[in-house]
Amino acid sequence: MIVPYFRSPDRTFTLLHGDCIELLKQFSFKFDMIFADPPYFLSNGGISVQSGKVVCVDKGEWDKGGTPEYVDSFNRAWIKECREKLKDNGTIWISGTYHNIFSIANILTELGFKILNVVTWAKTNPPPNISCRYFTYSTEFIIWARKSPKVPHCYNYEVMKQINEDKQMTDVWQLPAIARWEKSCGKHPTQKPLSVLSRIVLASTHSGAWILDPFTGSSTTGIAANLLGRRFLGIDKEEEYLILSQNRKKEIEQISNFTLFRKKIKDIALLDRKRLLSVKEENTFSYDLPF
Ligand SMILES: C[S@@+](CC[C@H](N)C(=O)[O-])C[C@H]1O[C@@H](n2cnc3c(N)ncnc32)[C@H](O)[C@@H]1O
User: Fold this and answer.
1) Is residue 288 part of a domain?
2) Ligand 1 contact, 234 CB (< 6 A)
3) Domain with 12 in it: what CATH number?
4) Of ligand 1's atoms, which has the minimum distance to the CA of residue 19?
5) I want to staple 5 with a disulfide (CB 3.0 to 4.6 A). Which of 17, 170, 172, 181 is the partner?
């Protein structure tokens, strides 16, 4: 029996502590959408410049590089478990860079997913490349795939058009890197911005949907999900990140922060105010996690 590390009083935000491959095997609940930001395997002593200082960009033990065979077998193991936890009409988003994204694309296809898009997140404020021997790295890729080639998936086409000046949303998203206000509860070395995650949540789920993040880190996915009226389960093997996640959830439980953060998301995404306000009212939750 799984014991949650944390569950919010409103039951919309649950965290599990441990290895996602092991934990996902232990229950049979199915999710509407999965966002995964797995290790990119690029912590190999690289350097960059931050605030004028040369700094090592290693993220942690969990991100140390392995052989291509190891990267493939790790990706195969967790994507296979995620597939089991996805509803037939569900979709999965997986972020990465060239270090892991080709492995992920191949494994998604091998396991029977249909790749819908490869979104390029073009950072509007990337850090400089201090070697001056390459182009500045300014992009990350996010693969969006559905579980079944035949079962239709959720795509909120009109919402995406609406936040893109009434033009079809393209697969290149010009969004800034993480902002300082998003780190008020502490730092995670690879924290994703709420602007990226709120667009993902809005594009591919309806209000009340259940969203899983097997590599939750600081739980940006969960915060975006809750700000937009969706429910969330996050898993991480590092306790310090679960504490950070818990504090981020507590932060938005204060109504003034909840309102402020929704406004910030709206300002970034140019989201229609009426629709955002109606999201909360639509919540009628009819099913719950088994633990
Ligand atoms: C790239 S970070 C995710 C960052 C997150 N998207 C955010 O916005 O904060 C990957 C996370 O996965 C966790 N992790 C790595 N391997 C794991 C595993 N096998 N099971 C569960 N968590 C794992 C790490 O501790 C790390 O926090």
Assistant:
1) no
2) no
3) 3.40.50.150
4) 20
5) 17
* Span 29-38, average pLDDT: 98
Torsion of CA 220, 221, 227, 230, to 10 degrees: -160
Q: Give the span between the Cα atoms of 169 and 97, in whole angstroms.
A: 22
**Token code pair at residue 248:** 């981020």
Q: How many CB atoms lie within 10 A of CB 262?
A: 20
How far, in Å, is the centroid of ligand 1 from the Cα of 213? 9
Give me the number of domains the chain comprises: 1
Q: Ligand 1 atom 15: the closest Cα is on which residue?
A: 62
Ligand 1 centre from 65 Cα, in Å? 15
- Domain holding 258, by residue range, is 6-283
Give yes or no for a contact between 149 and 91, defined as CB atoms under 8 angstroms apart: no
Burial of residue 286, with CB atoms counted within 10 A of its CB: 0-12 exposed, 13-18 middle, 19 or more buried: exposed
The closest alpha carbon to 24, from 192, 213, 153, belongs to 213
Between 194 and 60, residue with greater pLDDT: 194
pLDDT of residue 67: 87
Which pLDDT band, with edges at 50, 70 and 90, does 141 fall under? very high
Confidence of residue 277 (pLDDT cuts 50, 70, 90): very low
Indicate whether 181 pLDDT > 70.
yes
> CB of 218 closer than 6 A to ligand 1?
yes
Does the pLDDT value for residue 72 go beyond 90?
Answer: yes
Each residue's pLDDT tens digit, 197-206: 999 999 999 9
Nearest-atom index, ligand 1, CA of 220:
8
Q: Residue 65: its pLDDT value, please?
A: 72
Residue 236 C-alpha to ligand 1 middle, in angstroms? 6
Q: Does residue 239 sit within a domain?
A: yes
Q: Is residue 76 part of a domain?
A: yes
| 62-66, 103-107, 137-141, 183-187: the lowest-pLDDT one | 62-66
d(CA 217, ligand 1 centre) in Å: 5
Which residues lie across from 49 on neighbouring strands?
A: 54
